[in-house]
Amino acid sequence: MAAKQYEKDAAAMTQNTFPVYKVDAIVQFYRTEVLTGQEAKHFTKNDITPNPKAEAIQRLYMRVLQLVFRFKPESFYTMPLSENLQYPMLYEGVTPIMNVYMRMCQFLPICLVYDFSLNDMISPKAKRTITILSAIQNFLIFRKGRLEVTAAHQQSFRSDLDRLQAYTREIKEAEKKIEELSIIPPEQQAEAKELAAALTELTTNTQHEYQDVSAMNEKVAQCKTEIAEISQKLSQRRVEVATLKDEIVKLKSQIVESPEELRNEMERMKETVKNIKMSKDLADERLVELQMRVQCAGQVEAEIQVLLKQLQDLQDSMCQTNQQKEKVQDLAALYEALQKELRNLSTEEAQLRRALAMKLDKESKQQIRRLKKKEVKDQQVKIIYGQYDKIHEKREEVVKLIEEKNRETKQFNEKMHMLKDKCSQRTQKAQEIYERLCCSLELYNSQIETVVLKTNRDISTMKSHF
Fold first, then answer.
1. Residue 258: which pLDDT band, with cuts at 50, 70 and 90?
2. What pLDDT sits at residue 11?
3. Burial (0-12, 13-18, 19+ Cβ within 10 Å), 64
4. Is the pLDDT at 119 greater than 80, yes or no?
5. What angle do CA 131, 133, 136 make, to 5 degrees?
6. Can you tell me the distance from the alpha carbon of 68 to that of 365, in angstroms, rounded to the nearest whole number?
7. 283 Cβ contact partners less than 8 Å away, ≥ 6 residues apart
8. Separation CA 77–CA 70 (nearest Å)
9. Is the pTM above the cut of 0.90?
10. How does 140-173 read in b/e, with b if 16+ C-beta sit within 10 Å?
């Protein structure tokens, strides 16, 4: 299963989901975004290609971890010691590399690099380091964009809070103004009551006067119609008189009849003239009466105009009051709208406060955890210091033992040299004895061979004799 997972990770690394940048772009990015000061000046293209420098790559990984996770530099040099670990001073040179390696193993899967090994730090290769650095660069660019977005969200949140505070202030001021407008001060309450009573009386009076004016207007209209009818009748009578005069002139020119008939016609004409004069006098009297009535109607109209002016003034005051009422209604509508906005903002504020409370709870929990971790670390550090003191004491004892052992080994070596000298002397003597023995044995063997040859000759001679 582990082999299959490794093969899958290797296949995923062959098909990168992030762009592999050029070496110049990588160097420029890490100079500007990650490294600072002299480290940025001394970091060059030669640290990556053709043969990457292990110290520069390790330092670069350390600075990336400090940038992303806010690690302190001394945290890479502390090693979690156990009680059973002997000689921890031997691990001092390895601890920063192992710390960086362990944390890079946790960090690089976020950058879609799943096969990071210790050889990538101790003996890095150019192609491999370029892919890893480009993956980290891609993640850092994404992280920078997200940080800018979160900063913009925080700024908008702060501006919304400022707006909410300004809206709450304006709403409070509007509420105060509405209260001031709606509540009549006690000094002016009596005047307001009197004005209200006067307004009610004026409204009733104006209604009655409107009714009277309407009745008078009807009467005036009737009078005008009567005057028009009378004037029409007068004009007709005048026309008739003119026609009669013309007829009289014609008749005078055509008179040939007897004087009696003329007298009778003249009497009839006089009677008709008297009747016309009587009707004219009556019409004149009626005209005078109607003129008097028209004058009275004019005076009534003047009085009505005065009343209309008063009514217009009252209407203006009523319009002003209506405008004030409309303003009050507008203010009430604005107050309701502001209340709605305030409710919405209060809900948003409640949500933001909840989020802030959650964040603060998380931060407090994290702080508590950090404090606990610090306490545990302090206790561990105290224990480690105690262990270190004990180890130092043991080390001193071990050093003393080593010195004694060294002395013993020196004495033993001297004895060994003495024994070697004696052994060499004895070996020389034994060699000389061995050489002597070899010579004597050779002589003895030669003598034995001669004896054997003689015996063989003697045996052969004896065989021949027998």
1. low
2. 46
3. buried
4. yes
5. 110
6. 21
7. 230, 233, 234, 237
8. 15
9. no
10. beeeeeeeeeeeeeeeeeeeeeeebeeebeebee
